[in-house]
Amino acid sequence: MLETNHSEMAMPLVLIVDDEPLMRLQLKRAMKQLGYQVAEATNGAECLDLYVQLSPDLVLLDALMPVMDGFTCCTKLQTLPTTEQVYPAPVLMITALESEESVERAFESGAVDYVTKPIHWAVLNQRVRRLIAQAQLQQQQALLQQQLQEANLALQRLANTDSLTGLANRRCFDEHFAQEWRRMAREKQPLSLILCDVDFFKHYNDTYGHQAGDRCLMSVAKAISSSVKRSSDLAARYGGEEFAVILPNTDEVGAAIIAEAICTNIRALNIAHSSSNIAEHVTLSLGVATMVPRPQFNSELFFTASDAALYRAKDEGRDRYCVQSSASFSSFMEPLNS
Ligand code: GH3
Ligand code: MG
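Above: inputs. Below: predicted complex with magnesium ion.
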């Protein structure tokens, strides 16, 4: 039973749990005088139901009651799931039991404070006020903490994302690359890198305008990212109209399959490009390099190798991928400290 509406008013709600009607009446009066709303339960089981329904700010809990006593109830209250909206309310035990053992039991079952009957009302009022103020402060802190976490996550997403295409940006790519380079070196597994560049994109902008160019880059980005499937793969916007794809645990054959899929998916977009010198639609050129990294190698040369393959693809007519064979460049890899 709830006397006033908890959600409509901001006043804290105290859940009074006692099997004696007179005791409940006295507690209700005292709480109302303090300006709190009140709900009442006559035993532990009712208390659990009302607690879940009303999410009170404080529970005043009698120890000895029929159906379910206060200790059992208090223990069960601690196991109820808490959500962002429902914060665990403090429990203050009110009982005639004065023995040391029952005081210990009350705290062991999760009560945060304890008063004995007959009630010293001034003491009870002070404790209730303090517990409610503390609970409200904790709730505010938890809320602020959560908002801070959300803001940090949003900030992190923003710092790692290219605003035009939604792909990972260069910063995020560099971090991921360095991490995967080290991991593949440890695991002695192949790492592949694909650099992709839109063909005759300057002509595209000149013909259709810069905004259409932006829309084109967005579609190209989607087609590239949908071509890579594994969670450790990463497609990123590497520069203006250049994209990079990192493929850990992927050899030359696997990387060539992905490169081919990217070319096919871009052609399938069928974005008209009337000023392209090689096709009616937008196409990409790709350079692929694969190697098993070694910690002492300078990873920049790996990019140089992919770049060389990309420019070969441009030279050989564009709208294609070229693979830089690992044998052709790994022998030139220089130890970092030389
Ligand atoms: P190639 O086939 O040799 O790659 O020729 P290209 O015209 O694509 O290469 P070039 O490097 O000469 O031109 C790249 C163009 O990409 C020029 C630049 O204005 C355009 N570009 C770079 N970033 C953006 C962007 O964010 N939006 C738009 N619309 N255009 C961009
Ligand atoms: Mg280009």
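The radius of gyration is 34 Å.
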